[in-house]
Amino acid sequence: MSAPGKVGFSKAVYTRPRSLVDVKSHFCPGCHHGTIHKIVAECIDRYDLREKTIGVACVGCSVFLYDYIDVDVVESPHGRAPAVATGVKRAQPDKFVFTYQGDGDLAAIGTSEVIHAANRGENLSVIFVNNTTYGMTGGQMAPTTMLGQKTSTTPYGRDFRSDGYPIRMAELLSGLEGTAYSARVAVSTPAQIRKAKESVRKAFEMQISGMGFSIVEFLSTCPTNWGMKPLDAQKRVLGEMSEYFPLGVFKERKQADVA
Amino acid sequence: MEDSVTATGRIEIDFERCKACELCVPACPTECIGMGTSINRQGYASAVFERPDDCTGCAICAETCPDACILVWR
Amino acid sequence: MSALAASPSKRILTKGNEAICLGAVAAGCRHYYGYPITPQNDIPEYMAAHLPALGGTFLQAESEVATINIILGTSASGKRVMTSSSGPGISLMQEGLSYMAGSELPAVIVNISRSGPGLGGIAPSQGDYFQAVKGGGHGGYRLIVLAPHSVQEMYTLTMLAFDLADKYRTPAMILGDAVVGQMKEPFVASPYDPASTVEKPWALTGCVGRERRNLKSLHLKDNAIEVHNWKLHEKYERIRKDETRAESYMLDGATIAIVAFGTAARVSKTAIQWARKEGIAAGMLRPITLFPFPEREVFELARTVDVLLVIEMNTGQMVEDVRQCTSLHDRIAFLGKPCVMPTPEEILERIRLLAGRKG
Predict the structure, then answer these.
(1) What residues make up the domain containing A239?
(2) Taking a C-beta distance cutoff of 8 angstroms, is the pair C257, C271 a contact?
(3) Residue A258 binned pLDDT confidence (cut-offs 50, 70, 90)
(4) Residue of chain A whose alpha carbon sits nearest to that of B28
(5) How many domains does chain B have?
(6) Residue B17 belongs to a domain
(7) Quick check: C57 and A72 CB within 8 A?
(8) Exposed (0-12), middle (13-18) or buried (19+): which is C180, by Cβ within 10 Å?
């Protein structure tokens, strides 16, 4: 490999985000958790938040947030991250607080916590990774599992008669008065990655300016548990998932409610 | 790797850290990246910067890589 | 006049639940999160009214599950923090308490026990003993458990709970009940001694000028979780060795010794006084810390008295721990009053029987 800075191409255009720890991650090949970690790290760097950030890691593939994002992190029981984050933010209002949660964590066991953190307008940000399955535990049905999608607990495909419908969290939370920002993005194309970064920036700006609760839902692949090659998994996101889970901004408060 | 005449940028792929997920290959607008054959310590056949001449330094590959394996210069 | 403003030596008529709040505030607690449940509602109500003015934060959460996790977050920030509930709510907090024990996070958890199991009732009970002292949630951990039997102790033991929780980095529980919580009696708001407050270098405050820190209970590498369990075990052994507290009440020359805590012990004191008047040498050992349990004291007492009369407001839980402490099981008697307060008359009656006297 030629040493960087060689004559001709010496201006670094893309380097690792400072807040992304320089280690190999445990994520499966092509898993979008890695992409989303990079976006979060880039946005932390952008607003120089690293030394005042406290992350809340949930239970699931993303629990190792503290190995990958170079900030203080507290680990939360499964689904409770928005409550733990509330406890951190209420005790340290000057700190930047975010949670990083999967769909099993946020949309199943943690629905009450995220709904009430949003409804209280807690001034914190939620990064919500929706890959329509429980990744860490081996691919069981999640609340966002698509109808007809086979998982280890819907071996014949999810059937609404017995398993209900995939839940759209970004829209659901956008209906709460306390929610300042709710959007759904994806990272399956370079253009989507750029737009996703804008949404996370927006969410972080909301918190920095005290506007209240912000959430960015990411449609994400889980190649291993979907039994797909990473590139095919991205097609699934671009196809049926984006149809059922439309991308966009569902709520964006213009200015904070003032007493 | 010599500087080519037409290239306006150059990338470096971390051979050991790449997990051969192939996401960067179709992401590159000028198809500079291909999948290699030599196996890294993880057991993956790492991606390779095959056609440096066509690289524009746009950094889309680096943005795409889930494992931040790619650095880009102009 | 609120005890907050009273001079330290003045006796003030106060409700037990409120005395807990005064103890917490005196100990520097400025963060309280809770959820409505009888018979502890005075506590969140007091905190809602008084914490904001002290620059603190009060929050009524959507459930006790959320509550204990908000507690976890504030504790991770290095702040003194408290919650209170009753049996059903404490049950919902068990997962969070296990995570806090595993992550070595201090907090004060108040259980003003009601009747159980299930919805049970709002009458006092000591049926949450096992849940409190045997860990309660998953994994081999223990909570420090303090059992007040007066409004004065609701105040002083709450202050102690904060000190012990911080000293050992673990949650500490006040195990009261509807009686000691709802009753009023004069107490002295003695000043808190800050000498025992400890620094919290482990708190998460943003990694300015230092490496990032994390607080977690997940230990996947090699035998890390095994090593962590032994570390916690040593902590609990230190607590057993140094923090056991019990009251000896009229045990001089006693032939019959009651073993009881909280409200059951309070009532027993009256019965003991009556028995002494009748010439029966009765006394009591009252565990103040339920964990760590006063094992040595029970062991020695069993050897010196004819009978240990264990009295509990349940069908027999602490009696098992008493049996653990001595091989002289034939000397152990039990009087159980599940979900109701024993009367001094009932206790005296039993003492008489045990002393070989006719009723």
Answers:
(1) 32-252
(2) no
(3) confident
(4) A190
(5) 1
(6) yes
(7) no
(8) buried
Q: Are A4 and B65 in contact (CB under 8 A)?
A: no
Looking at C270-355, which runs of residues are DSSP E strands? 282-287, 289-291, 307-312, 332-336
Report the CATH number that the domain containing residue B57 is assigned in CATH. 3.30.70.20
- What are the E-state strand segments in A70-178? 72-75, 96-102, 125-130
Residue of A9, A23, A37 best to disrupt the B interface, most CBs of B under 10 A: A9
pLDDT-based confidence at B73, cuts 50/70/90?
very high
Q: What is the C-alpha radius of gyration for chain C, rounded to an integer number of angstroms?
A: 21
Residue B3 lies in a domain: no
Of A57, A71, A92, the CB nearest to C77: A92
Residue A14: which of B26, B42, B62 has the nearest Cβ?
B62
CATH code matching the domain that covers C3-242, chosen among 3.40.50.970, 3.40.50.300, 3.10.50.40, 3.40.50.620: 3.40.50.970
C72/A86 CB distance under 8 A? no
Chain B hits for A31, CB-CB cut-off 8 Å, are 66
Residue B44 belongs to what domain range? 10-73
| pTM to 2 decimal places | 0.93
pLDDT at A96 over 90: yes
In order of C57, C82, C221, the CA distances from C74 in angstroms are 10, 10, 27
User: In this structure, what CATH number is given to the domain that contains residue A128?
Assistant: 3.40.50.970
Has residue B4 been placed in a domain?
A: no
Mind listing the pLDDT tens digit for each residue in C144-178? 999 999 999 999 999 999 999 999 999 999 999 99
Would you list which residues of chain A are within 8 Å, Cβ to Cβ, of chain C?
Answer: 50-54, 56-57, 63, 66, 70-77, 80, 83-92, 95, 112-113, 115-116, 120
What are the sequence ranges of the domains in chain C? Answer: 3-242, 246-354
CA A243 – CA A237 distance, rounded (Å): 9
On whether the CB atoms of residues C164 and C144 are closer than 8 A, the answer is yes
Amino acid present at B8: T
Instruction: Decide if A16 is inside a domain.
Output: no
- The minimal CB distance from A75 to the residues C70, C75, C103 is found for C103
Q: Which two tokens stand for residue C13?
A: 């008529």
For C246-354, which CATH class?
alpha beta
Distance from CA of A224 to the nearest CA of B (A): 11
Instruction: Enter the ipTM.
Output: 0.91
Nearest to B3 among A8, A20, A33 (CB): A8
